[in-house]
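Fold this sequence, please.
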Amino acid sequence: MSAVKPLEAVARDRVGKGAARAVRRQGQVPAVIYGGNKPPQAIAIDLIRTRTLIYAGGFLTTVFEISAGGRKVRAIPRDYQLDPVSGVPLHVDFLRVVAGQSVEVQVPVHFTNEDAAPGLKQEGGTLNVVHHTVAVEVAPESIPDAITVDLTGKAIGDTIHVSDLPVPAGATLILDGAEVVATLVPPTVLGAEVEAEEAAVAEAARAESAAEAAAEEGTKED
């Protein structure tokens, strides 16, 4: 389970696009805390701190204790916006954490012991991951850092379904149990795709060379 992290913030009394731009000019990120049957609270958080937390991973599965306006509130990020060019955080939405409630979060799926999987180690297969994260409904204090899949003994052709995932106590997977998370595919599957792509590139290069040669020949005749 991820530890609750402290997060300093400043309460905002103005909202809207103009106010948000003013906050960003001061090196902060506008944010809002909502839910819990209480009015939304507009806050601003440090830009560098926010960017570090987002790019460190696990941001959307971390519960924060936010200090703002002389009060502390526990909340979990529900969404954030980044500048499409610079990647700088533009806004963050937080959901208040209420005792007894569950939240839906996307938890990363990690795979271990690849060296102990015959399909990968001896047979040269590839792990084809369909879902890098899975939706889990869980109490905020029990959000797992990740769901770990042991690949020991896995052979080519083996499939890992949602129902095979080791779910932490108290957590419920949202996806259907028959949904495929990952498969072990033979090397020829990806190899054939690579060969086809290389052949297409070579053919295009030959066609381009032939066109250039024809153009040069036409120039000489003129």
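The mean pLDDT is 86. The longest strand covers residues 71-82.
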